[in-house]
Amino acid sequence: MKSDNQNNDTLILTIAKATQTIVLLFVLAILVVVIGIIEANTHAIYKAFNQPEMNTTDSLAQKQEAKPDYWVAPDVATIPNSPEGELIKYGRELIAHTAKYLGPEGSVMQISNGMNCQNCHLEAGTKPYGNNYGSVASTYPKFRARSGTMENIYKRVNDCFERSLNGKPLDTNSKEMQAIKIYIEWLGKGVPKGKEAKGSGIVDLPFLDRAADPVRGKIVYEQKCASCHKKDGSGELKPDGKEWLYPPLWGEKSYNHGAGLYRLSRFAGYVKYNMPLGVSYPESQLTDEEAWDVAAYINSMPRPSKDLSKDWPDISKKPLDHPFGPFADGFDEKQHKFGPFKPIKEKRETRTKQRK
Ligand code: HEC
Ligand code: HEC
């Protein structure tokens, strides 16, 4: 017969063992839960990084997923406090407020139409796909077929003065040109020579299967643009009367027909990810069709002209959407202006292949 003491001991031992097992099971359960949470999170993080574009209809968006590794302009706070730094700051000021210094009532010279470079090169030339200057310092001087020559930054800046700002060129030695150049170089200093920064310039939208349509474009314009740029495209001045609150899109005070924006692909790519004001890549409020059509409408309206007889000395190098003949590919001015561009592209590619 066992004594009461022995019985008690067995009981205690059993309880102890049971507790041990429960604790062990508990710890195991916690481990399983913790591992589960870690797994789930890893999946969420992985998914977040690999999420495809919201806008899946866009072939460009598919090619270049929105990654946070776009070129970012250097911080203005890092501009040195030196004579060189002062020139960089002046350059930035001239890009942002060109009209104040160089417009029709400019305080330094009167050589341009009253627009600011920043009206088209948004945020002083730093906005992703906002026609920024990220790749200028790294890629110039370069050969450009429009002039048929090697172009340096001075030449490219003056192109925009003479075309986009429908004005006169700046003297290369002027303080203003030096300031603009040094600012553009400072912006691009982190981009290796010969490389293009991601997100620089303007997006290339896919071509439509049809010609861009100014009639449809007018409807887009009146619904999504006219509230700021005005029904007649003339824009609105700021109260100071010098700079634009909303820059003009056509008419005497707008860019001339030698400007980059006069090419439909440049205009469509620019507005798709920047207009109406406040839109930023990869978001957009315009379908590709609306972007092409509104470009066709605006670029069918009157604007200043320019002598372009010296442009594109090699006519076979004209961009598909350069709207002025003669052309080497047999398509007419109308198709080169509005499209459809795919047949032109295909014919040119077949010819190149045949020549090889
Ligand atoms: C009306 C719009 C407009 C205005 C105003 C304008 N530009 Fe431009 N600029 C363009 C377009 C369009 C391009 C060509 C972009 C492309 O082909 O991708 C361009 C290209 C450039 C480039 C070459 C960019 C590159 O990556 O190769 C430079 C430099 C430049 N502009 C400087 C200026 C300066 C400086 C001013 C002011 C004096 C100015 N632009 C005003 C529309 C404009
Ligand atoms: C909410 C007002 C607003 C709306 C709506 C708007 N824009 Fe703009 N747009 C601006 C402003 C402001 C600028 C100049 C940006 C700057 O200087 O920073 C500008 C600049 C431009 C430019 C380059 C400068 C020029 O005058 O050539 C183009 C092209 C343009 N807009 C086209 C459009 C089109 C097309 C639409 C409609 C799809 C549109 N905008 C809708 C306010 C607007």
From TrEMBL:
It comes from the Bacteria. The chain crosses the membrane at residues 21-38. InterPro entries: Cyt_c-like_dom (IPR009056), Cyt_c-like_dom_sf (IPR036909), Cytochrome_c-type_DH (IPR051459). Residues 308-321, 343-356 have a biased composition (Basic and acidic residues). The keyword Endoplasmic reticulum does not apply. Residues 212-302 form the Cytochrome c domain. GO terms for molecular function: electron transfer activity; heme binding; metal ion binding. Keywords: Heme, Iron, Membrane, Metal-binding, Transmembrane, Transmembrane helix. Gene3D superfamilies: Cytochrome c-like domain. This is Cytochrome c. SUPFAM superfamilies: Cytochrome c. Residues 308-356 are annotated as: Disordered.
